[in-house]
Design a protein that fits this description.
7 helices; 3-stranded mixed sheet; 3 strands; alpha+beta; single chain; 144 residues
């Protein structure tokens, strides 16, 4: 049986484009090279489309771009219900940050889980009871 791997991004991005971006974002959040490599493998599978007709695969081009430059991590610490946290979140979300991964440090189970892989997230806490934000850029990502 022939299995076709869809790459065309029409009104909705193709599943492969979404998968590639998700793999790169998860790799960044969890510091997992195996996930980054899996995302790079998706891009290599569709390399011909990326090279010859990138306008037909814009979501995959975005994943490729993120794989090269997705080095910014923004961590917001505090309770989602806190007015200060909402102000910080609104400020971050009001900007176009295609190369950033946004994480929430609320002191809960999610933060504890991510902290096992991401030291910066584990160290983030509100400052003097007030919501806080930090941003970090890593070194150059290796190219797929």
């Amino acid at each position: 049986m022939l299995q076709v791997k869809e790459d065309y991004d029409s009104a909705e991005p193709s599943p492969n484009s979404v998968a590639a971006m998700n793999l790169f974002r998860l790799a960044r959040m969890l510091a997992r090279e195996d996930l980054r490599e899996r995302g790079a493998k998706v891009l290599r599978l569709f390399g011909k489309s990326l090279e010859e007709s990138p306008f037909t695969v814009p979501a995959m081009v975005a994943a490729l771009d993120f794989s090269h430059y997705g080095e910014v991590e923004i961590v917001l610490a505090g309770s989602k219900d806190d007015a200060g946290f909402q102000t910080l979140a609104t400020a971050v979300r009001s900007r176009y940050l295609p190369h950033a991964v946004l994480l929430h440090a609320d002191g809960g189970a999610g933060q504890a889980f991510l902290a096992t892989r991401n030291e910066a997230l584990g160290a983030m806490n509100p400052v003097n009871g007030q919501a806080a934000a930090t941003s970090a850029a890593t070194g150059s990502a290796s190219l797929p």
